[in-house]
Amino acid sequence: xxxxxxxxxxxxxxxxxxxxxxxxxxxxxxxxxxxxxxxxxxxxxxxxxxxxxxxxxxxxxxxxxxxxxxxxxxxxxxxxxxxxxxxxxxxxxxxxxxxxxxxxxxxxxxxxxxxxxxxxxxxxxxxxxxxxxxxxxxxxxxxxxxxxxxxxxxxxxxxxxxxxxxxxxxxxxxxxxxxxxxxxxxxxxxxxxxxxxxxxxxxxxxxxxxxxxxxxxxxxxxxxxxxxxxxxxxxxx
Length: 237
Hints:
By secondary structure, the protein is an alpha/beta fold. The protein contains 8 helices and 6 strands. Helix 4 crosses helix 8 and helix 5 (132-148) packs across helix 6 (160-172).
């Protein structure tokens, strides 16, 4: 295994990009690229699995479900090219974790500071529903990212699927999971080993259009994540 984490993440990224473990997901991601909606006709799709993106010295790791078929699967960067990503990176920018508010494509100048964004699954699943086997095929990549991101203190799980995936990845790192198992909720916090796992509603249109998740809620959560990443465990009164 490479010795230096900054050189190991690119090596891991190349392994992820070559992955073809899940035939159903390979077919789906390539089909999305071959038959794009009219608004994306002419775009050259990435159509490969997505590694994480961000600062190798990250103290915060944001974990999503999977790339969107016409978002990250098109642009080649996780949470990029769709409305969920617009919300996520704008909030990370307001919290001081990103140098700009938008993530449009690879090479657009976006840089993350002390933050890293990844997902449980690296290919878009039909209906945003990976099977348990597809989740488990991908999970070792998340375990390895956590192992390499040695300064990380806070994991923000976007949605219940990411929460469960984060718990499984932490178990893969031989971290002791509390009993009873921590339950997902927006703003839920679970100290696990050297990490704090924080729950956040996913910034999907289903949540943002209905008002279940607002910009203020997302900003408050990342402000809290910054507190935790800086070593301040107690909540503000």
